From TrEMBL:
It comes from Marinimicrobium koreense. Keywords: DNA-binding. This is DNA-binding transcriptional MocR family regulator. InterPro entries: AspAT_Ic, PyrdxlP-dep_Trfase, PyrdxlP-dep_Trfase_major, PyrdxlP-dep_Trfase_small. One of its GO terms (molecular function) is DNA binding.
Length: 425
């Protein structure tokens, strides 16, 4: 189906055929959900051995009784787990609760309200400050900025990561830009892995940015590969050390999509100066994290080899779901001008771009046909996709057959929205 080459008569015929097909789908009263990137029940079951793994032994390797208060930094073995996950020095890791998003919000709150390196470094001292947001991106990152009143500037994603020419120009020109969100491996939602050059240029931003600039490096999918020979992500912290910009990047990760999503362990990796400032904030609002959960995870995933073997189980469950999405898109749109998409090698999402002006109608039609999708525009700051194109597909939770069924609906909705848009133009 090539809309740009179609006559009005062809478009009207297609619209009639698609509307009939769509109504048959509506009559089925489906209830399918492709909205959020959560692990499936089968994936969660991979970690059920966490339950009872301690067998009454609550002592950490350093003798800490994990049942008691204290330990703001986290247990040494939990720090090592974070280091195994992110490829960094365990001494530069702080271990928190179950949510890396919580840590991101707390670190940004600290930087904005109190300053990571003293009160004079607080962003609020400079009035309205700004953050760069590669788009399409993660909606929860945008929500953090909105909650703190930080203005967001969208920068386009490329196949190598954020458009670094644009990023560098913006950062040089405006000292009120205080940082940038990054999902560097299997970016949410495009699946892009930042190139070595992009990582290097991001590490160097601290040399050209205004004071107290911080990149929030959300390495959520560091080990979430779907292929046998996955792409490697360069270590941004090593690049920062070479540029002398160690304070300019703060890295986050968690086990939320590795073990039990609601009962995992989250990590911050940062320079000593940043960790010191953040711990001053944490010391006012907690006596310490859940160390029992930390030691459970440390014993369940005692080393890098155990971690990667565990992730192979996740990959085996996710591969057929992603294949169902990509097979449907290739079969329906490979020879058409109705959309574009990436074929990710890992992560949790497939990003699909409709023709301009069709994403909202596609999502609305799908919802009315019983298939829930992430709202159109959610991957852009303030929920505003200027071209109304991007749709994030999250296939992890439904069964393979449910994903196949949902994609049949999705394909019809994309076609119907596109034909109607072309007829109206």
């Amino acid at each position: 189906m090539q809309l740009d080459q179609a006559t009005q008569e062809q478009l009207r015929q297609w619209e009639t055929e698609l509307a009939d097909e769509y109504q048959r789908i509506v009559n089925q009263k489906l209830n399918l959900d492709l909205t959020r990137g959560k692990p499936s029940p089968e994936q969660l079951s991979l970690s059920d051995a966490l339950d009872g793994i301690l067998k009454g032994d609550y002592k950490a390797a350093d003798g800490t009784d994990t049942r008691n208060y204290g330990g703001l930094d986290g247990l040494p073995e939990a720090k090592q787990l974070g280091a195994n996950l992110m490829g960094v020095d365990p001494e530069d890791v702080l271990v928190g609760g179950n949510s890396s998003l919580t840590l991101m919000f707390q670190v940004m709150l600290t930087a904005h309200q109190f300053g990571l390196t003293g009160a004079d470094s607080a962003w609020k001292n400079e009035g309205n400050v700004k953050f760069l947001c590669p788009v399409p991106g993660y909606d929860r990152h945008h929500t953090v900025c909105e909650q703190l009143g930080i203005d967001m500037i969208a920068v386009p994603m490329t196949d190598a990561g954020p458009d670094m020419d644009k990023v560098e120009a913006l950062v040089k020109d405006d000292p009120r830009i205080k940082g940038m969100w990054c999902v560097p491996k299997y970016s949410n939602p495009t699946g892009v892995v930042y190139s070595d050059e992009t990582v290097e240029r991001i590490a160097a931003l601290g040399k050209i940015a205004g004071p107290n600039f911080r990149v929030f490096w959300d390495n959520a999918y560091a080990v979430h590969d779907l292929v046998d020979n996955p792409p490697e992500l360069a270590c941004v912290m090593k690049a920062c050390a070479q540029h002398g910009t160690e304070d300019s990047v703060i890295q986050f990760a968690s086990t939320s999509k590795i073990t039990h999503a609601g009962a995992g362990v989250a990590f911050v990796n940062a320079s000593p100066a940043n960790l010191k400032g953040f711990k001053q904030f944490l010391g006012t609002c907690t006596i310490g994290p859940d160390k029992v959960n930390q030691i459970r995870h440390s014993r369940f995933l005692p080393n890098r080899d155990a971690l990667m073997k565990h992730m192979q189980g996740h990959a085996e469950l996710l591969k057929p779901r992603f294949a169902a999405v990509l097979d449907a898109l290739n079969e329906a749109f490979a020879e058409s001008d109705l959309g574009n998409w990436q074929e990710p090698q890992g992560g949790y999402f497939v990003s699909f771009d409709t023709r301009p002006g069709c994403a909202q109608d596609t999502v609305r039609l799908a919802a009315e046909a019983g298939v829930k999708l992430t709202p159109a525009g959610a991957t852009f700051p303030y929920g505003q996709d200027p071209e109304d194109r991007n749709i994030r597909i999250a296939p992890s939770v439904p069964s393979v057959e449910e994903v196949k069924g949902a994609m049949k609906v999705f394909v019809v909705c994309v076609k119907l929205a596109s034909v109607r848009k072309q007829l109206a133009s």
